[in-house]
């Protein structure tokens, strides 16, 4: 599993061009807009999502205090593993 679930049981993600140094970062690159789509596969609950716009410098103020930090080195390794996994994915 690649997604991090917070200690309160919630899944939070951050959409940002700049790496906020937290789990579940979705890089918007240079796209000025986009679509967020969620899929629940055999879930026991289907929560209503909520969105809050905050400055990157204030992201941690809106996350649980025990949210782990993702260092630049850890992010580089994470992205390397994802690229490798995508390259090795079987194409039918």
Summarize the structure in words.
Helices cover 18% and strands 7% of the residues. The chain contains one helix and two strands, in the order E-E-H. It has one helix at residues 72-88, and strands at 14-16, 25-27. Strands 1-2 form a two-stranded parallel sheet. The mean pLDDT is 90.
What is the count of DSSP helices, taking H or I runs of 4+ residues? 1
Please count the beta strands (DSSP E, at least 2 residues each). 2
Percent range for helical residues? 10-25%
Radius of gyration: 15 Å
N-to-C terminal Cα separation, in Å? 23 Å
Approximately how much beta-strand content do the residues carry?
Answer: 5-15%
Q: Give helix and strand order, one letter per element, not per position.
A: EEH
With strands numbered from the N-terminus, the spatial order across the biggest sheet is 1-2
What would you call the shape? globular
Low-confidence stretches: none
Give me the secondary-structure topology:
Elements: E1 14-16, E2 25-27, H1 72-88
Parallel strand pairs: 1-2
Features:
single chain, 92 residues, alpha+beta, two-stranded parallel ribbon, 2 strands, globular
Could you give a quick summary of the protein structure above?
The protein has one domain (14-88). Helix content is 18%, strand content 7%.
